[in-house]
Design a protein that fits this description.
disordered C terminus, alpha/beta, 47% helix
């Protein structure tokens, strides 16, 4: 049995020829619908999932160009192949101008029809893949992926809505790991330039000579090793967006060139004399305080004023702890989709630990922690013990949202203060049942797994402890 190569609609008012072509195409592995009148063809187009439409130009009712126009209105990505027994140059030009995929001349040659169908099906697959990739990009890099209910994040979202579709230069500032690159991509995806290139350059990753060539290109022989011409990133981003990350590392010489590009959108490649003009939207980012850099003479004042047209300052993650549960849920869904693991979520205690941690690596570090917990977690519910040790044993500081209790000897957190009574209760019950964990769990009204985790967290399972005794059940086994 031949595999289904595709679903075709064949339209021709010559009933004998129509039946003959349907029979032959079906024998070649196609699923074929047929129509000999325009209205019948339009009903099939509207109601069926088709891959290609093949129609004669001349029909008793209407013509193939009317069917082509209807397809372009109803299903613009559906390719249409026209057939005619009266082909000429004018007909071919009109067919291509109106959006036909191909024009075949009767009498049809089997191989010619097969080739045209194969090419049309390939184009439809490519368009479907491009649409799928665009959807994935929108889902991954769209503004909806930048999570935040914090008022400062909401203000940033409002500013993006206002400026995304303009040509204004945008400067994104914030600590490393706060999501500056993600925000730049989201701005691009939200603009009318979304179908064009998004070009990202990490300015701090390249030495000055290579960075200038990377941005503006070079001509052959402009420096040692330049054996051919190179197209720069600004030219690649023409009509699209160029994102310059770590702009604070740019050298004084490069800053001069950048200023000219941002003002006039013109530049010459390294070693060249030809001036290129581009229509590129420029987004820059830095984790450095550029005002201090200007004051220290490391960053040009005129360039600073030019790049600081629209400033989006991303707050650090520790300054918006209310967003952490949302981010955790978003990252968790992403990892679960990739790994296929069945995870119900994080426990309240685990989320609390993540909300009280300082996050020096910001959102990037949080994403890594969530991924690690999913990959190494031992059950469908991720507990505090599934988090890295440095989160569980994090330094205790008096910070907003983290209450502390003062004692005569030292300052402890509320969590620490509550842990000590819990530890004492569990230890007393363990001792009373001679470290029988089943009996201890029953007496405490918790299951054995929970008891194990509490013992581990509270340091009650170390055999070297003077008050430690082996589990009687283990001794019996």
């Amino acid at each position: 049995m031949k595999r289904n190569k595709g679903r075709l609609l064949l339209v021709d008012d010559d009933r004998y020829l129509l039946d003959s072509m349907v029979e032959w195409l079906a024998s070649q592995g196609y699923q074929v619908y047929s129509a000999w009148r325009r209205e019948q063809a339009l009903q099939i187009i509207a109601g069926e999932e088709l891959d290609v439409v093949v129609t004669d130009v001349r029909l008793e009712e209407g013509d193939g160009f009317e069917i082509l126009a209807a397809v372009k209105e109803m299903k613009p990505e559906l390719p249409v192949i026209l057939m005619t027994g009266y082909g000429n140059v004018d007909t071919a030009v009109e067919a291509m101008r109106d959006g036909a995929f191909d024009l075949l001349t009767k009498p049809l040659i089997d191989e010619e029809l097969e080739l045209a169908l194969s090419r049309a099906l390939s184009q439809k697959r490519v368009l479907a893949e491009n649409k799928s990739l665009k959807t994935q990009l929108d889902r991954k890099y769209g503004l909806e992926h930048v999570v935040g209910t914090d008022p400062r994040m909401q203000k940033i979202f409002d500013m993006i809505d206002a400026v995304a579709d303009t040509r204004a230069t945008i400067l994104i500032t914030g600590e490393s790991g706060t999501g500056k690159s993600l925000l730049a991509r989201a701005i691009h995806r939200r603009s009318s330039r979304a179908s064009q290139s998004f070009v990202e350059v990490a300015c701090g990753a390249l030495p000055e000579t290579l960075l200038e060539s990377e941005l503006f290109g070079h001509v052959a022989g402009s420096f040692t090793g330049a054996t051919g011409e190179k197209i720069g990133r600004f030219l690649q981003a023409d009509r699209g967006t160029i994102f310059l990350d770590e702009i604070g590392t740019a050298s004084p010489g490069l800053q001069v060139k950048l200023l000219r590009v941002l003002q006039e959108f013109e530049f010459e490649p390294v070693g060249g004399t030809k001036t290129h003009r581009v229509d590129s939207r420029v987004i820059l980012a830095t984790n450095e305080n550029l005002e201090n850099a200007v004051r220290d003479g490391r960053f040009r004042q005129d360039l600073y004023y030019r790049v600081n047209v629209i400033n989006l300052e991303l707050p650090s993650l520790r300054d918006r702890p209310s967003d952490i549960p949302l981010l955790v849920e978003r990252f968790l869904r992403g990892v679960v989709e990739e790994t296929g693991k069945r995870i119900d979520g994080f426990s309240d205690e685990a989320v609390h630990l993540m909300q009280t941690y300082r996050w020096p690596g910001n959102v990037r570090e949080l994403q890594n922690v969530v991924e690690r917990a999913v990959l190494l977690g031992r059950g469908p519910r991720l507990e505090a013990d599934d988090l890295p040790t440095h989160l569980i044993e994090q330094p205790r500081e008096a910070t907003p949202g983290r209450p502390v209790i003062s004692t005569s000897s030292r300052t402890v957190t509320l969590k620490e203060a509550l842990e000590e009574p819990e530890r004492r209760i569990i230890l007393d019950v363990l001792k009373s049942f001679r470290w029988n964990r089943n009996a201890t769990a029953d007496a405490l009204g918790i299951n054995r797994t929970t008891l194990y985790k509490k013992m581990k967290r509270l340091g009650l399972e170390d055999p070297r402890r003077p008050d430690y005794q082996p589990d009687e059940e283990a001794a019996v086994r």
